[in-house]
Write a structure and sequence with these properties.
Layout (H helix, E strand, L loop, with lengths): L4 H12 L11 E6 L3 E8 L3 E4 L5 E3 L9 E2 L3 H10 L2 E9 L3 E8 L2 E7 L2 H20 L5
Antiparallel strand pairs: 1-2, 1-5, 2-3, 3-4, 6-7, 7-8
Helix pairs in contact: 1-3, 2-3
Length: 141
């Protein structure tokens, strides 16, 4: 699995809005490096990580977990979106180049665009996390 820089950035931002990384075997996590970009890993049994860039395996020390963010699959992103009370209410392709979805969260609908359905599913999940955070902290929407 190779993810785009935008997907890495979205998932990193999702972490900042409360999406905790998951370290179950089969999950994909990533971490950012200051000037080098991002590296993605497949979580293996026994709390080991397989670098999808270098092909090496390393143990995952507990104190390093805070450096990672989770990259949910499209299915996982949609399930998480629905668990937060959101939904994708409209989905279409525009000029066969980008996906366009309407993300409905409470009484608000936001149009989102992306090059892949994974992009827009992650963007919708980000909208949901921001909305829930703001409503829980008393910030008016």
């Amino acid at each position: 699995m190779w993810f785009t820089r935008e997907q890495f950035q979205l998932c990193n931002e999702l972490r900042q809005w409360g999406l905790e990384p998951r370290f179950e075997p089969g999950d994909v996590v990533a971490r950012g490096f200051a000037d080098l970009g991002f590296e993605e890993f497949q979580v293996l049994p026994g709390q080991r990580l397989l670098s999808l860039t270098a092909g090496t395996t390393t143990p995952l020390p507990t104190d390093h977990r805070g450096h990672f963010f989770w990259i949910p699959s499209v299915d996982e992103a949609v399930v998480l979106l629905e668990a937060l009370g959101g939904e994708i209410s409209l989905c279409s392709r525009c000029d066969a180049r980008e996906w366009v979805v309407e993300c409905k969260m409470h009484d608000t609908i936001e149009e989102l665009r992306g090059r892949s359905f994974h992009d827009v599913a992650l963007k919708a999940l980000l909208v949901a996390h921001r909305t829930v955070y703001r409503s829980n902290s008393g910030v008016s929407l």
